[in-house]
Amino acid sequence: MIHTSTLPDVELPSGISITEYTFRMVDELADKPAIIDGPSGRTQTYAELFAGIKLIAGGLAARGFGPGSTLGLMAPNIPEYASFFHGAAWAGGTVTTINPTYTASEVRHQLQDSGSSILVTISMFLDVAREAAEGTDVTEIFTIDPVEGVPSMFDLLTEPPLENQVAVDTDGVPVVLPYSSGTTGRSKGVVLSHDNLTANIEQCKHILDYDSDDVALAILPFFHIYGMQVLMNGLLANGVTIVTMPRFDLEEALTIVQEHKVTWFFAVPPIVLALAKHPLVDQYDMSSVKVVFSGAAPLSGELGEEAEARLGCSVIQGYGMTELSPVSHATIPGQGRSGSSGITVSNTECRIVDLEGNDCDVDADGELWIRGPQVMKGYLNNPEATAETIDADGWLHTGDVAHFDSDGHIYIVDRIKELIKYKGFQVPPAELEGLLLTHPAVADAAVIGIPDDEAGEIPKAFITLKPGASATGTEIQEFVAGEVATYKQIRLLEFIDEIPKSASGKILRRELRDR
């Protein structure tokens, strides 16, 4: 059974670069603030941003950067991130976005695999950048902020601007290479074309419907596909003003919301958790916020409802992955269903498939398969991994367990590889985590499977308590037991200071298993 979107199809852009598409309204938006640096208030208008992009593209082109070249971009969320991303794209090249908290060896792997010849960073990460560049094809390192004796962004601005987009094959040439572990293994370069990126922004137009005066908070890292596409490119392409934060700090985020009258707050579940439960939130005026949009990891229905009741706005979520540019499902504000990741975006087909490869009925769990113009071209230099993920008919096998209800709303249950198998029964960690977060003493929670001779695996919970709260492991286990079937009960429990999570908010279960 193929599930299609309940939304009308959209006309997909073709033959237009992501930069031409993103700034197609630059003349009418010329004097509007495009990006504001949250901590300092430093502002670039749409006209200033686009002019800077052309200058950076000219500086890169003068150094031989163009089609076939790759630039590594390792920086936090600052206005210049968009300038370098689009400057490289305008020059006809490719960008690989790098997590600035990576170790030198992790950065080196990405530089080598992507064939990067230029690396752009900030002074804070210069030492790591230099170490990582050793033994790679990187010939120049630029800093965005000036450092004595190091080429900086300002050296690129001395060349004439590149007035026109360098001609590229918008469907066949990668414009960005974000790195993802995919469904298995070490991180791989995800080949995304201009057409992938422009298509996915258009596919979301019926769901992410912005007003002309909207202001969005950009906490989520631009190096991650969610921050790169839904925030940086998607918001600019829709004429929204973006306020950036280089790292998440709850008090600073709340201050920015209050000062800039933020209307769209993009988040991941740990941030929604703070918005729902942290006492600091009550000290700030959050009345401007219309939508809190959560992504990158499942948000439990209970937590979403708690945040919604506290903030008095729509708290919704979407689903996607790097390999999908990234959105395949999202919730229309005001039309959410508890625990659902929304409906299928336009021009997208889905299947729910069981372990034998048979299509599942409505409300039955199986692996989610997706087909559409947002599906990546493949993994860079890795045909084996590509073939394991995208089948001969173009279906991308997500590795996620999900089901649709009768109205086309999707519910993400968990990752296939993270399901706990207890005596043959499947136990989704995300379900138990959502339940644990409803306990009045619990601030955060994670659940993993622990090998067991008799049961195969047993569920173990890691719990962080709220400040000043107290609860015993037995009390929490009994709370869960009263809400779920016997096979889903928590068999082991450990209290820890903090649940380890990635920059995008995903629980780092491997670190918990290593304990």
Explain this structure:
- The structure is a single chain.
- The chain has 515 residues and is α/β, with parallel strands linked by helices.
- Among the domains are: 43-169, Rossmann fold; 419-514, GMP Synthetase, Chain A, domain 3 (2-Layer Sandwich), CATH 3.30.300.30.
- Helices cover 27% and strands 25% of the residues.
- It contains 15 helices and 27 strands.
- The strands form 5 sheets. A 14-stranded mixed sheet has the order 1-18-19-21-22-17-16-15-14-13-11-12-2-3, sandwiched between helices. A 4-stranded parallel sheet has the order 5-4-6-7, sandwiched between helices. Strands 8, 9, 10 and 20 form a 4-stranded antiparallel sheet that branches.
- Helix 10 links the parallel strand 13 (264-267) and strand 14 (291-294).
- Helix 2 crosses helix 3 (79-90).
- The chain is globular, with a radius of gyration of 23 Å.
- The two termini are 42 Å apart.
- The relative contact order is 0.10.
- The mean pLDDT is 93.
Question: What descriptive keywords fit this protein?
Answer:
515 residues, alpha/beta, Rossmann fold, GMP Synthetase, Chain A, domain 3, 14-stranded mixed sheet, 4-stranded parallel sheet, 15 helices, 27 strands, globular
In short:
With 515 residues, the chain is an alpha/beta fold.
Radius of gyration: 23 Å
- CATH topology-level name of the domain at 43-169: Rossmann fold
CATH class of the domain at 43-169: Alpha Beta
The number of strands is 27
Distance between the termini: 42 Å
Overall, the morphology is globular
Based on helices, strands and strand pairing, what is the structural class?
Answer: alpha/beta
* Unreliable runs: none
Strand percent estimate: 15-25%
Assign a percent range to the helix content.
25-40%
Number of helices: 15
* Largest sheet descriptor: 14 strands, mixed
Q: Identify the CATH architecture of the domain at 43-169.
A: 3-Layer(aba) Sandwich
Q: In which order are the strands of the major sheet placed?
A: 1-18-19-21-22-17-16-15-14-13-11-12-2-3
Mean pLDDT: 93
